[in-house]
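Problem: given the chain below (141 residues), write out its structure.
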Amino acid sequence: MTIEITSEMKKLINNALSDKYPCIVGTSSLDGLPNVSYKGSVMVFSSTELAFWERARKGGFAQLIDNPHIVVMYRNTELKKSWRFYGEVTIYDSGEIRDKVMKKTVQAELDRDPDKLGVAVVITLTKITTLGGEIVQEVSR
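Solution.
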């Protein structure tokens, strides 16, 4: 099976911040130290990828340098919709991909990075589950 982000997922994730249900990103250091943080800039980048604008370059981002595995959680309690998106990141600190992610980033997040010093983090998805752990989609290995 391959990953194919649905139109419903795309709509909800791309509007998560304005809907007041921002995504939560989970990372881990190589020695297993976990980190979670809200990311208002999470977006659907392609049918198989999520992305976000990383302006702080601290905490979880620092962990991604050594350990590219990541989980993104979306949960909208009003609509009773929720998913976990698992994958591996590629970081773009310059170039066309960085520019594309920045262009798609919600203005509220870009306003917090007035000098545009952030980087693009693109997540190639390997699995999507419910919050209960049921596999919705997974890349065949």
